[in-house]
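Quick entry between incubations.
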Amino acid sequence: MTDTLQPTKVDIQPTQDLTLWLEIFETQSRYSHAIDADDIETWPSFFTEDGVYTIVSRENFDRGLPAPILHCRNQAMMRDRVIALRNANIYEEHRYRHSTPGPVIISRDGDTVTTEMSYIVVRTGQAGDAEIYSAGSYHDTLVKTDQGWRYKERKVVYDTSRVLTLLATPI
Amino acid sequence: MTDTLQPTKVDIQPTQDLTLWLEIFETQSRYSHAIDADDIETWPSFFTEDGVYTIVSRENFDRGLPAPILHCRNQAMMRDRVIALRNANIYEEHRYRHSTPGPVIISRDGDTVTTEMSYIVVRTGQAGDAEIYSAGSYHDTLVKTDQGWRYKERKVVYDTSRVLTLLATPI
Amino acid sequence: MTDTLQPTKVDIQPTQDLTLWLEIFETQSRYSHAIDADDIETWPSFFTEDGVYTIVSRENFDRGLPAPILHCRNQAMMRDRVIALRNANIYEEHRYRHSTPGPVIISRDGDTVTTEMSYIVVRTGQAGDAEIYSAGSYHDTLVKTDQGWRYKERKVVYDTSRVLTLLATPI
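Done. Structure below.
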């Protein structure tokens, strides 16, 4: 009989490759800045040409249901998204500010790495009032290219459902 | 007579050991992730066997009063805490998201280092509404082990008193 | 005729000098800590003697209007500011907690570097209730000195207008 009141200890290990951690973190800093600085034209460039970007609720993610609120199957679709946002004039009305505690390296296989990271996004409207727009986690696969690390898949899983606009903005 | 209107300049120095800063920051990223990813069974493993974990209000901390809302004197007590939280089913009802501006190295003596770091924790309930659950600072003593840096003492000093549940969750 | 629906791809590059990124980030961590730990006497020391510190609204910044809510033309003025804040007893009534996604290096010319970085500041009052006090971005010029990187110019551009006090505190 196993003692259910004394679970076995969980083993943890530090990240062996601190340089990798640093590179992933620095990539995220530039990614956050692209969105926060209203420079979303740059946003698709953080992905590979065949990169996939998805925003899905925590509930659906945990149940294995798809039903994302945003799904771009490649970089071209992301560029289309940017055009749609600019035409709708929705994006410029708000300012977004990302913050994170830094990435966690889940696995590495050569030039491919999977990572996870919590995020908090604060949004300020034109009246100057701030709110927590979204809190959740990134679930990423990155590949090393000649231009540095790029997202091959970035899945945004949001806890907070303040996404009320018809046209979801990238997180 | 000293001139009270012109205080002497305060001298500051950059951290000499950037690798140490990086290691402490990366440790915090994994610590935050353990809590944020609802993987709290891993949480005690970030401490030494005799590690001490305390959550105390800013007010009591500043006055030197003990009266913590949570005090674990060793890793075994932390594992008990995890079991209690799981049995109470309180923990899973919320999602936590940490964020920090990075650690500050206060002192180093061989394989022991003391650090401080601000934190913000956002909590999202099942209704999908986010709030600032806790804001405050970590006051830590870490020791270098064969498995990387471990907390020998982690004191969480919270400014924000939204801790209303009977069973406080780790921060 | 250019295709306005397919904008040319934006080229991005990773930061070549990760050590620089690390040094700037670590400097910001200590800067945030000085304010968050109520150690604002240290705050002016993060600047060069002739360093300039400005807090300006996003609206004015975008329009190129000056009208900052706080403008210190050198370190001595910052020390005066600290004295004013201490005498007014406004500062100690609140606790501030910074958070950022990390810096972005915009340009480097020898020992001078320009950077940008989003920030979120949470403030907790004496009643223990937290709010997003300010969200915005830092626009900085730093120079390398014998005591590490110092701000030659730090411009705080805030999105969020919760700055209601007559005597603005440093961010």
